[in-house]
Design brief:
Blueprint (H helix, E strand, L loop, with lengths): L4 H24 L6 H12 L3 E2 H8 L3 H13 L3 E5 L7 E5 L1 H21 L5 H26 L1
Antiparallel strand pairs: 1-3, 2-3
Helix pairs in contact: 1-5, 2-4, 2-5
């Protein structure tokens, strides 16, 4: 019996992604943040004071989802919106001191989780996996660009 690529690649990728989000959310619960919020905070810790559009691209979040995430992060004083001096219609998103403190606490914890997730996978296999993921992402980006043109 031949298993379709839809099932062997598509379904397996979705299943793995959901399980990864589930375990990360479980481990991030003591910090009162979700994986979605963590990805935005981590991105801001690396690229502070950027427009919401730039943040949306870097964190790979659509604008509506990002707005909701930013509202929650701002409510907890992890980020703040600052008037953009070069464009009065937009804001720059900045990480606050408490947001940086949280990032410093969560980052090593997150690394530890991923160390557990990749347990038993040798470096060579992991490198191949990362290379394949990158190629899949590039192919998907190309297909999306074709659809948008």
């Amino acid at each position: 019996m031949v298993i379709s690529m839809d099932k062997s690649i598509g379904s397996a990728s979705v299943r793995t992604s959901k399980k990864m989000s589930r375990i990360l959310n479980l481990y991030l619960k003591p910090f009162n943040i979700t994986t979605e919020q963590w990805s935005v905070l981590r991105t801001l810790s690396e690229s502070d004071r950027i427009s919401q559009k730039e943040l949306s691209e870097l964190a790979d979040k659509d604008q509506a989802t990002l707005t909701k995430i930013l509202d929650l992060l701002e409510k907890h004083d992890f980020v703040k919106r600052i008037a953009n001096p070069t464009d009065r219609r937009s804001y720059l998103i900045a990480i606050t001191e408490s947001g940086m403190d949280l990032t410093k606490k969560v980052a090593p914890y997150s690394e530890d989780i991923f160390t557990k997730i990749i347990n038993g996978i040798d470096e060579k296999s992991l490198a191949v996996y990362q290379e394949v993921l990158l190629l899949l992402e590039e192919n998907i980006d190309t297909l999306l660009e074709q659809e948008n043109n």
